[in-house]
Amino acid sequence: MERTTLTVDGMACDGCEATVTDALESLEGVVSATADHETETVRIEYDEGAVDEATFGSTIESAGYAIPS
Hints:
The protein starts with a strand and ends in a 7-residue tail after the last helix. A 3-stranded antiparallel beta sheet has the order 1-3-2. The chain is built from 2 helices and 3 strands. By secondary structure, the chain is an alpha+beta fold.
């Protein structure tokens, strides 16, 4: 298992955290995701053979949030 932490712009509340977490955990290969709007981060544990970080970015953006460049 791999772990990564990404910065996520636009999360403002617990509902935002739930949206990001649910979107990421729906991906095959993601074991867990924990979003924190106060630190603007999401920690993801995943199987690197099944999913990659580029997919995380597009999934977060599809959910309405941004990954800063």
